[in-house]
Write a structure and sequence with these properties.
heterodimer; A: about 325 residues; globular; B: about 625 residues; alpha/beta; 21 helices; about 35% helix
């Protein structure tokens, strides 16, 4: 990717003249603006940026960008984006998807893009509901949740996107509340920097069909006490008083209070996002109190393009075939007069 | 026991097939060959055989002069010789391969017992390097089967067999495979075991088990026979090579990529009988080919759509059920007006159907298998060699008209081999893409060429052309999302008209033999060989009132189609389906179309066509 001096652009360069049509108050606006604010900081040229989406409320996203974009078909954005990136590895490719798009109809493409580790960025808008089709439960809806298609309560247990992703070998996984634009912007910048498939799950509130689904974690009044925002190399401490932290108790994570029972800051686990072994990352993803946000996993690995490039260069250097004529006339041929 | 199904012989449709079994003199090749020819004769084939074995009863094992062979020539037409060229060689050891390779035509199939290619056996056969690994067999279709170990495994629970007995029954594994390949039931041979080993039930069980194991193995790996194809009698001068249809298809795209200056991207998921195109294209990384084996059929086509958006020559390859899965994405490619070629190597349907057999029953799926009004170009190759031409042409039309193209081939021509006059890339027609680089004022993604109506191709990475495409309907001018009723109608007509205008860029239909008269034989796609042969036979025998018109372009149809039709009193449309092309013609032209159809997973047989045509003319 050709880089440009950061800040050559402003967020306006990445917007366009189209009227944004999400419901008033939707977190999607926050995500859109955060992306537009993050892009000028990434040092990529506008013409090299491509947004690919599937179907759903979130998937209208490319239409509101000033970059190249494609509004694809339901669930297939990761596969379309893989084709874009393999065709031109110089592009900065972004997938916009929702919990229905990526976990239900597009589940297969979602796991395989992560397994392959193609260098692209996925923003997963998780609102635990189907919005565009007006309120059915999704693969991340909770058991018991009453929706248009589960009037007596949902009976299907949910996926945790992070758990599924890391199980599918995701090398980069971050999670952030839909009401945290600053942290979100920083995470998008880190996702772009990361070489490999980066998955960012945004806990996005749907004001119409699932309003308040995350308030117990994301509301400003409880956020500091209920969320642990992790940073690589720093102790996992949270709480208004900054006195809560995580320790290991046998094979489980345990919330402890610094200053009680002889616990000091040195006893608190230090976050290692770059560790290859995903065991701790899975434990962090699964934790319900505190809810872990920030970059949970960021393990540097070889990308598919790097493997392909190396192989192609090696074969090209050895091959006797420089153009198709060489191939067509090779081996057994004969003349007809 | 294999359920007794009515045996259908491949050789009823093929004019003739020559099969040679070779191995060590102790490998039982004579018995294998005799069983195959007896079974074939019982099915009503004409048969000629030619046993060839060493004078020593037991020459040194694995040596070149110890090779024993048995050749069988079977066919639906009169067979007068055991055949000159071998279509299928079954080699049980390296010595057998070495001494018999000369007789096998390039492009044909060789089945080997891979377990026998040991260092010791290779030395005995005087091979310096292993021919299965050194690339010397690249002109053949080599099927490596670990026959010795599979035989051993099949027999592991049978009491009373010694090592020698186990080793010696691997010939029945080979025979089982060949029975599957040519649609013959193993029943006759099992009866033979029952008689021969009356007093040794463990040998009946063992031989039956191995025979069936071979039969099922061939079925499991979806082994396909190299189908026979008719080559033109008078050949244009030039340099030729023997090529398989699927290889020719792959090479057509290689040539188109080079000619257009684009990189080739294949998104594909393995499916019989299309997989050989993937196998071929993965070999050509030296040309920068990006062959991506995707997680499913849908990812195969959608990754290709992504690659096309990013500026590659993008293709996806599949067979019937795969095309069904790709339908929605093909609609997207049509809607966003990107170049894309979808190759459908047709097989017997519906559903999983007959994966290894041929049929032409995906025509209407290719034409209409999408939601909404979604016309695409549909073309069909008609011989193994012209798969090259039509793959090239499919790429050219897709790129120049900014639309998806469905290229139809079928199992019969895809696995058939024929002489191909090699084309130099410089001699192929120009391909001019619609890529834009120079920024224009007020540019919009739906800026169209006045003549073709093809839109501009602005690829990511090009400054000043940032735009969004998508499955939602777009405004005809700005390319922004539009739900305006009149606009939707305009865009629908433009997309249809764009495909229709391709008519001006494809050749006219040229009937062969009579250009006016009593009967016009009409066909399309892979049935060219059999229809052409039958029409020629009638013409040569004096029926100067019979013409033959074969279609390679289905949507749009050639411009002069109606003119050609008008000159004949009767038209018979011959297809390997229930009349799909006949119905397309009925939608386009108001006249009577007679039909001749066959849905057995087999090509037309010569005598059935002759009978049908004579009956119509009388």
């Amino acid at each position: 990717m050709e880089t440009v001096t950061a800040n050559k652009y402003t967020y306006k360069d990445f917007a366009n003249d189209q009227e944004v049509r999400w419901c008033p108050g939707c977190d999607d606006y926050v995500i859109l603006r955060s992306v537009q604010k993050a892009l000028p900081e990434m040092g990529v040229k506008k013409e090299d940026v491509v947004f690919i989406s599937g179907i759903g409320c979130s998937s209208r996203f490319p239409y509101y960008m000033g970059t190249y974009g494609m509004h694809g078909i339901h669930g297939r954005a990761p596969a379309i984006a893989s084709g874009v990136k393999l065709a031109n590895p110089n592009l900065s490719v972004w997938v916009i998807t929702g919990d229905g798009d990526s976990m239900a109809i597009g589940g297969n493409h979602f796991i395989h893009v992560l397994r392959r580790n193609i260098n692209l960025n996925i923003i997963l808008f998780n609102n635990e509901i189907y919005g565009l089709t007006k309120g059915q439960f999704s693969p991340t809806s909770l058991v018991g949740q009453k929706t248009k298609s589960s009037p007596f309560g949902n009976t299907q247990p949910p996926f945790s996107p992070g758990e599924l992703a890391i199980g599918a070998q995701a090398r980069f996984f971050a999670r952030i509340g839909g009401n945290a634009p600053k942290e979100m912007t920083d995470i998008f910048i880190e996702a772009e920097k990361f070489k490999g498939t980066s998955l960012v799950e945004v806990l996005q509130n749907c004001v119409i069909f699932n309003d308040g689904c995350y308030v117990k974690y994301t509301d400003k009044s409880v956020r500091e006490d209920k969320q642990l925002f992790v940073e690589h190399g720093k102790p996992m401490i949270f709480g208004k008083e900054r006195n809560k932290g995580l320790m290991l108790n046998k094979l489980k994570l345990e919330v402890v209070t610094i200053g009680e029972n002889g616990v000091t800051e040195e006893d608190i686990l230090v976050h290692d996002a770059k560790e290859k072994d995903p065991t701790m990352h899975q434990m962090l993803v699964r934790l319900e109190y505190p809810l872990v946000t920030g970059i949970i996993r960021s393990y540097d690995d070889v990308t598919l393009e790097e493997r392909e490039d190396a192989l192609t260069a090696q074969i090209k250097s050895k091959s006797k075939f420089k153009q198709t004529d060489d191939l067509f006339f090779s081996g057994e041929t004969y003349e007809v007069k | 026991m294999i359920a007794a199904e009515k045996p259908r012989s491949e050789a009823e449709a093929l004019e003739a097939v020559v099969i040679r079994f070779v191995g060590d003199s102790g490998d039982g090749m004579q018995l294998t060959g005799t069983q195959f020819s007896d079974t074939s004769a019982m099915f009503g084939n004409d048969v000629a055989t030619f046993p060839n074995y060493p004078s020593e009863i037991r020459a040194p094992q694995g040596s070149l002069y110890g090779v024993s062979g048995f050749q069988v020539h079977i066919g639906s037409v009169e067979i007068s010789t055991p055949g000159d060229n071998v279509d299928l060689l079954v080699a049980m050891n390296p010595a057998g391969l070495k001494t018999n390779l000369y007789a096998v035509k390039p492009g044909q199939t060789i089945i080997v017992d891979a377990d026998s290619f040991t260092k010791k056996n290779l030395e005995k056969a005087q091979y310096a390097t292993n021919p299965l690994e050194d690339g010397s067999l690249s002109n053949y279709r080599v099927i490596q089967v670990p026959m010795s170990s599979l035989t051993k495994e099949a027999l592991k629970n049978i009491e009373g067999l010694d090592q020698k007995m186990i080793t010696r029954s691997k010939n029945m594994f080979a025979l089982g495979m060949v029975y599957w390949l040519y649609s013959r039931s193993p029943e006759h041979t099992i009866e033979f075991f029952n008689k021969k080993f009356k007093t040794k039930p463990h040998l009946i069980e063992a031989n039956t088990k191995v025979l069936n194991a071979g039969y099922f193995y061939a079925e499991t790996i979806e082994l396909i026979p190299n189908s026979y194809s008719v080559s033109p009698a008078k050949m244009q001068s030039g340099t030729y090579r023997i090529i398989m249809g699927n290889t020719a298809t792959a090479w057509g795209f290689l040539a188109a990529a080079e000619k257009s200056g684009l990189e080739l991207f294949l998104g594909s998921y393995p499916i019989t009988p299309a997989t050989d195109i993937l196998h071929e294209l993965v070999k050509h990384k030296h040309f920068g080919v990006k062959a991506f084996q995707a997680e499913d059929e849908i990812a195969g086509i959608t990754s290709a759509i992504g690659a096309s958006f990013a500026g590659d020559l993008a293709i996806t390859t599949t067979s019937g059920p795969g095309l069904a899965l790709k339908g929605e994405a093909l609609g997207l490619a049509m809607m966003i007006e990107l170049p894309l070629v979808v190759v459908n190597v047709q097989r017997g349907g519906p559903s999983t159907g007959l994966p290894t057999k041929t049929e032409q029953s995906d025509l209407l799926q290719a034409m209409y298998g999408r939601n909404g009004e979604s016309p695409v170009i549909v073309i069909a190759a008609s011989t193994p060699a012209n798969c090259f031409t039509y793959a090239y042409q499919a790429a050219k039309l897709a790129l120049e008209h900014m639309t998806p193209v469905v290229l139809l081939t079928d199992g019969y021509i895809a696995n058939g081999s024929a002489p191909w006059r090699i084309r130099k890339v410089e001699d192929l027609p120009e391909i001019k893409t619609r890529k834009v680089t120079e920024v224009k004022e007020n540019w919009h993604p739906y800026n169209r060429d006045e003549i073709t109506l093809a839109r501009d191709w602005a690829v990511p990475g090009t400054p000043g052309f940032e735009h969004r495409v998508g499955g939602l309907e777009k405004d005809q001018k700005t390319g922004n999302v539009s739900h305006v009723p009149e606009n939707h109608e305009v865009m629908t007509q433009v997309r249809a008209e764009k495909v229709k205008r391709v008519q001006s860029f494809i050749p006219d239909l040229i009937p062969e033999f009579a250009s006016e008269g009593d009967l016009l034989i009409v066909g399309w796609g892979g049935t060219y060989g059999s229809l052409h042969t039958a029409a020629k036979q009638l013409y040569d025998a004096g029926s100067r009132n019979i013409g033959f018109a074969h279609f390679n372009y289905i949507n749009p149809l050639p411009r002069n189609t109606e003119e050609v039709f008008k000159k004949f009193k009767k038209i018979v449309v011959c297809e390997l389906n229930n009349g799909q092309f006949a119905n397309i013609l009925r939608m386009n032209f108001s006249r009577e179309f007679l039909q001749h159809n066959k849905v057995q997973g087999l090509p037309f047989a010569n005598n059935e066509l002759l009978e049908k045509f004579k009956q119509i003319v009388e």
